Here is the input.
Amino acid sequence: MEQFIKNLEIQNIDKEKINHLKNLIKSVCGSFYIIKPKKNYFRFPYLLYVPNQFDSTTLIMHGNNLALEEGNILNIYSAIFETTSEAGYDLLSLNQPILVPITSNYIHPANNNMHEFFPMQASRNVLFCKDSTNTYYKLFEQINNMIEDAQNIIESKYNVHIDDKIICHGFSSSSKFVLRYATCYPSKVSLLIAGGFGNQAILPLENITINNTCIDLIYPVGIKDIKYITGKDFDKSSFYNLKQFYFIGELEDSSNDTAFNFRHTDPDIQEIYKNVFGFDYQSRFDQLKKIFKELNYTNVEFIRYANFGHSATPGISHSTELIKNYRKIE
Here is the structure.
């Protein structure tokens, strides 16, 4: 971590930011590790936080929400910053290990610089990328390898056995990343918390009939072609039993919406969103809740916070409470 701070200083990152980061790290009761890519295992780095004292041995995967272009050192800075209480999550207070994939956000040349290749949201063009030379080729397989690597590091360095299942946690863009991972691999996840998620949870359906028209629900709207990502059929049983929390603020609107933004969502996916949910941001939340209820998903909770917008939503600071409560009922 000292070397990382030196790299920030060498690259003339704002001194006030560096000092703020130093002070945050000093107050932390644990250690940060920046794990570099490992050939044929994962092609981009991840941040690993290990507490000095373990109140839980369940690894939390938190999405990287402030990603910049590939290789930018501030990606690592943001990954560290977001695990602290300064970001509103206070995840470090839970005294359990945390993994943050240091994903990027960059324009993909194959799309003629017109459409964004969006690893930090695990967008369709990332998960279905066929370019084996791309950093994020088979992204979720790399994530599985990262999780295994983190578990091995903690067990070898700290002699602490880490649980097989993880907790997925994210807000805004990072919420889409973790909820999409959890839907693809529900047997690997015990709890999912996704806030400000653009009302883009994945429906556990291959198709749906709207106004007498059958609509195929492909990733990331539904599970029609999820086998392409995982190599297996959708694990309906594990997904049904997965505890899930989704929350938004009632004042969130289209300015927080990536479903109909051409930079984030392919036109064919936009068409599915429009036909299934409509354009209205808040109405889409209600439609999601209604469908999950009709499917009898009793382990899924949708929370709308009155009088709050996107970044100020109380659920951000309540995430740690949700995790603590889950520990009690686990």
Residues 139-158 form the longest helix (20 residues).
